[in-house]
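Translate sequence into structure tokens.
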Amino acid sequence: MKFSLSISRAWLAAMAALWMSSGGLLAVDKPTASPQTWQEDASAHAQLLSRVKWTPVAGTLPNRSGGFFEAGKEYTGVPYSSVRSEGRYIGFDIGLRTFLAAVENPQSVLYTENLTGKVSNAAAYYGMVCSSYTSYALGCGIWEVSRRYGPEISGGITLVESQSAEAAQVGDVIYTPHATETSGSHVEMVTAVTKDDLGRVISVRIEESRPPTTATTERSAAAFNKHLSSRNKQLFRITDREAWRGTNRSEPLLFPNYEADAMPPKINRSLLLDLGDWVPYQKGKPVKFHVMDRDKLGVESLVIQRGGKAVEEIALDGPGVHERTFETCGDYTAHVIHKDGSQSQACEFAVCDLDLRLPSDNVPMAGGWQVGFGSENMKVIAVYLWNSADSYGRHPLFLTEEQQRAGSLTIPAGLLKKPGKLQVWLIGEHPLGRLKLRKDITMIP
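Result follows.
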């Protein structure tokens, strides 16, 4: 079920403050929503990810800056990692609470998986990059590439006439162009502009995702102007967000789920999964249950249920990791029975399946060929095309109800510009998160 997104900036700000003051779920009355601009929403959304505090429990969480995050040290902002199709983007593929649960499990994928050297610009299995962070803030259904924030790529966005702090507004983006055709670009967001009583700009706050974590920088007007003049940076303004987003809107989808991300989760102290908690698994992939018993209550058994009915009860003689593989899709829970007979908090996970079918031979670059798909216990929402030969060739194709019923999509003519290897990602959505299934095909002229 989709949470309502009509929440006030005050509510989001309050919840962001709670992230920094509490690791548990607090009983807070939600204030009445007040009118606000989408720019104010974007600023509040950005802070959900840039203000969150977390502490690694092991020293093996890879850091995009090199090495690893330090165990026992508190960090602010989610980690930088271009997870691509191999890992999961925080906010889009998983909710913030899933990342925070994974952080608390020393046997989670955050500590046992390392994408460094396997995926360019990646490190941790869960992460964000500059463009996914800004896309999350701006209410996109999936991440946009940073070049879509630049000149002459999209409608609804324009270069700010005066490239200065005095002209900056909340919701503006700063685009740093790529140095070469194959190199990366960068995007930052203006989330606050402070003025004096005479209306003169005192400072500008910029938020961004960069190694090692998201960052918040408050610059004086002079420092902002100096920053803007470096590396050919350009200040852009989204003048028509609906035109700029097009079909890539979060409102019809389950994620991003800003209200859920704003609520500090109660992390299970007895049991966590290798992917965290509140998370979907691909059918046939192993699920690792880490019985931790952090409060030393003693453990008697691990109970796994599907749809409220017991699937298996595993006798325990102490903490440890237990691996199971599930071939039946559905919504699952797992909990521990303690020595005194009490029941732990339950972990929630789903087992889902995605099926992606591509032509058996090469396909024409001009389009007109079909992608077939299917799913179980989740809804297919998009087909994402990644043209390895074209740095601008990133195309999310959101599915209509008719295409979802038919289980097929015809690739539009003229969409793809260069021949070569094409990555085709199928993206499915469940209330607990998203899964991606990737297959590659070769395009010919």
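Note: The CA atoms of residues 263 and 435 lie 23 Å apart.
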